[in-house]
Amino acid sequence: MDLTVAKAGTVANFTATGTVGPGWQVEAQMEAVDGKVRWGRLEAQVGRESPYTFLAEGAVFPFPPVVPTESRPIEEVLEMQDEARSAHTTIILLLRDYARNRGGTMPDEPSPSTLAVEMTASGRQWPDNPFTGDPLAIGNASGDINWQNCGLRDARYDGLGFDSALVIQSFGAGCRN
Q1: pLDDT tens per residue, range 44-100
Q2: Phi-psi bin for 117: left (phi > 0), alpha (psi -120 to 50), beta?
Q3: In total, how many domains does the chain have?
Q4: 62 lies in some domain
Q5: Edge-to-edge, what's the strand order for the sheet holding 145-149?
Q6: In this predicted model, what pLDDT tens digit does every residue of 19-33 receive, in sequence order?
Q7: Closest to 29 measured CA to CA, from 48, 38, 16
Q8: What 8-state DSSP symbol labels residue 83?
Q9: Is the Cβ–Cβ distance between 19 and 2 less than 8 Å?
Q10: 97: domain range?
Q11: Residue 165: CB partners within 8 Å, gap ≥ 6?
Q12: By percentage, how much of the chain surpasses pLDDT 70?
């Protein structure tokens, strides 16, 4: 077992690594102030809930605790996924019209202002993000648009669903990354 100790003033940090069984790697860290343990952490390959953090009584977490985000019922998520797919398809159709009407060129980004002519000509409305209720926009959250413009005629549209890309469409040669 390896043991490393770093000390600065009255604060000492200990790290120990080693094995406790055939191939079972374990790492333990501890911080002590004035000889009293303030916190410890144990990380073990065999610990299903690993890593474990231990705090001295009355100690505060070394990070700000937060309340987990609210979860959604699966039926609600599936319905929103369908709505997101439809919204992204509407934008992709508008982008195809844009490219067809402009010799294959693509806008800097899809937005109601850049696709206004196509919306008027097709009678389509700019769709809302079903996860937020706001108009569909560029971003990285559920229902958002990831847009890469890689050249005058080359772009990639990733329409996000609840937790991943739901609709992917390349324009021109697409984007290589």
Answers
A1: 776 667 787 877 766 666 667 777 777 788 899 899 999 999 999 999 999 999 999
A2: alpha
A3: 2
A4: no
A5: 145-149, 155-160, 165-171
A6: 666 667 777 788 777
A7: 16
A8: H
A9: no
A10: 74-171
A11: 146, 158, 159
A12: 85
Residue 99 lies in a domain: yes
Burial class (CB in 10 A: 0-12, 13-18, 19+), 157: buried
Contact 30, 46 (CB under 8 A): no
Look at residue 103 in the predicted model and tell me its pLDDT: 94
Residue 111 and residue 138 in one domain: yes
Show the CA angle centred on residue 147, arms to residues 103 and 177, nearest 5°.
Answer: 95
Length of the chain: 177
Residue entry with tokens 């996000």: 160
Here the tokens at position 89 are 């398809």
* Residue 66, domain member (yes or no): no
- Identify whether 51 is preceded by a cis peptide bond (ω within 30 of 0): yes
Domain assignment present for 177: no
Half-sphere exposure of 111 (CA within 13 A, CB side): 7
Residue 104: both structure tokens together? 């294959």
Backbone phi, psi, residue 176, to 5°: -100, 120
Residue with tokens 């696709």, as numbered in its chain: 115
Residues 50 and 120 in one domain: no
Domain shared by 43 and 81, yes or no: no
Burial of residue 125 (CB within 10 Å: 0-12, 13-18, 19+) is exposed
Backbone angles phi, psi at 153, to 5 degrees: -120, 0
